[in-house]
Write a structure and sequence with these properties.
- The complex is a heterodimer.
- By secondary structure, chain A is an alpha/beta fold.
- Chain A contains 10 helices and 10 strands.
- In chain A, the strands form 2 sheets. In chain A, strands 6-7-8-3-9-10 form a 6-stranded mixed beta sheet, with helices on both faces. Chain A has a 4-stranded antiparallel beta sheet with strand order 2-1-4-5, covered by helices on one side.
- In chain A, strand 4 and strand 5 form a beta hairpin.
- Helix content of chain B is 67%, strand content 4%.
- Chain B is built from 16 helices and 7 strands.
- Chain B has a 3-stranded antiparallel beta sheet with strand order 1-2-7. Chain B has a two-stranded antiparallel ribbon with strand order 3-4. A two-stranded antiparallel sheet of chain B has the order 5-6.
- The longest helix of chain B has 34 residues.
- The chains are: A alpha/beta, B mainly alpha.
- At the A-B interface, helix 3, strand 6, helix 4 and helix 5 of A face helix 6, helix 13 and helix 14 of B.
Chain lengths: 252, 510
Amino acid sequence: MSSENKQETRPDMIACENVDKWFGDFQALKGVTATIAEQEVVVVLGPSGSGKSTWIRCINRLEAHQRGTIVVDGVELTNDLRNIEKIRSEVGMVFQQFNLFPHLTVLDNVTLAPKWVRKMPKADAEIKAKELLEMVGIPEQASKFPGQLSGGQQQRVAIARALAMEPKIMLFDEPTSALDPEMIKEVLDVMKDLALGGMTMMVVTHEMGFAREVADRIIFMESGEIVEVGTPEHFFTDPTEDRTKLFLSQIL
Amino acid sequence: MSITAEESTSNYHHQKPPFYRDAIVVKWLFQIGALALVIFALWFLSSQARDNLTARNISTGFDFLSVDPGINLSEGIDTRPSTGGRALWVGMVNTIRLATAGIFFATLLGLIVGLARLSNNWLVKKVGAIFVETLRNIPLLVQILLYGAILANLGDLEFDSGWDNWVIWSNKGVSIPRVFIADGFYQWAVFMILGAIAARYAYNQRSKLHDETGQDTFPWLWSSGVLGVFALIGWFIHPIFSWVGSIFGAISDGISKIPEEILQIALSIAAIAIAGRWIQNFLQSRRTPGGAARLNDDDKFRIIFAGVGAAISILVIFVVWPGLTSWMINSSSDLFSVLENKFGNGRTGGPFGVDRPEVIKPGKFEKYGPSGLTMSIGFAAVFFGVVLYTAAFIAEIVRGGILAVPKGQIEAANSLGMKRSTALRTVILPQALRVMMPPLGNQYLNLTKNTSLAIAVGFSDLVQVGQTVGNQTGKNLSVFAIWMLFYLACSLTISVAVNFFNVRLKIVER
């Protein structure tokens, strides 16, 4: 994964420029400017409350930014509902709390959006869903309900559900933070496979091992600002900014 | 039993505890003691009541049900009932009418107001909030009296009140055209049954097509269309089904020829089979992976109870009520001959007819004729009272149910690119309904019981009629018993219906 080459040759999938976001008087994002290229894996690090989740949620408009521009795959995010729906169906998202639909079986969770949004025939959607469940390693759980699965299994179903829409970009919002330690690995393994398969990924996480191993670039945020951007080697061994050094000294 | 088994394997010397410390003996003693206490309390209360009633010359009994009470009712299926039972029946029908219409409209209005309160539109939201906060904080009785007073201020009934004898309104009530079942209805109903089968087929076909192609195929639209076509065709050519009557006639004749003994034996076998089947299923459900079923005392009691039930049924069939089988034969034979008549005898008219309301003037006072469907001021007052009052509560239940769906569910649906309407239908409503059903059932129960406030505006519901009948006959106690049984039956029916939906909506957890 030679990130330098990628950045130069591949087109931008996500381009944010001077993005500002307020919650009432509190400014959550301050002039965030960054681009993510096709097939690139970017990990966003930072202390809690630094705006990582807010930023990633702005990219598929779960939160609306107030100033600046966000362009996803050539489509600018505005109040235009058609753009929002188009971008959302191309951007998959995995949440900290899984957010599976508890009233539907695992299979129905995965096939729901392909059937109703992509208008995919039921049989095709189910074949695809079974392939994806195979990929995330839980084909035998298809007819169970989310409440009957472990946290790690639920999060893998959530990944399969997002992938069923055949997204061009996957956003991960702290996907392992609600999991027991022994289940974190099974989810990270699935994410690694995805990265190796060439998916464009933006991951908010506290898993330093994953960041070091999989990321092409690391973006470090604090107080709603991007403090430092760089390769994992640069970030973990030779960071430029004092604030980055302070953060690393606290967690490593 | 298990205690002794465990203790025999231990090295300690086994000593049988004294009976007052033996858990099983104590448990049974308590059961028997509690039962004795209940029986004694019932016996004591009833004998006291009987003595007091005789001392005060209050008579009980249900003879009045078949005696002419000599009363007129203000409205209902029969305004001059010939027996006490018929009078109470008219009251029950009025109550059921009020409750059914009330439940339907309260649900509709509550849904609209509840959704309005969740709206992003400031004005709509405030109107919803004012509706709820006003109506649920005024006592229902006050509201009913208020609506009654307002409606009583409508104009006097004249020959030209209202609109061309289609809708007439005045301070005597509102009258609208009455739609009634006419001669051809039963022949047309055959068309509708066939139409329902065809509509179901169309629905399945269109759903299958949706599954195969993923396109919107509108199965509901198609099936209602098919049903509509059948209804329309049937309207004109339904007399072709007049021969169906002869089938019912043949069934009727066939049933009347069944010998009593055969039915008795068949019923006995059925009772034994049902009990046996139940016990079998019960044992199956108690079976552990190890194989043998371990039964506790309750389980044994249930099995004995099932056996006793079968025995009692057989006893009833042969000894207690030997006329039961002949009654069953006669009444089902009668039922089919009634159906035969509904088809035959030159019934060639349309399936439905419409009677427009009319104003008649038999003496000094104008009044509505019997032809239209008239909603009296009393009915309207109670109806608006229970609908508005209950709708306010239902609105809060709807709002609460939708807010109870975690925000993450909506975000997940959004992040998958679902439209608002798709997310509402496939993700939010199925989960909100689960939260809404139990309290909604409570509101339906409340509404049904609240219709008894009709007495305040003189609407002839069961309570009002019962009170009149009780006063006329002096059998107030018997009337009380009928009231309680009726409302109990209504409540249980609603509970069963609500529970049915609860079970279907339940979410599977670990």
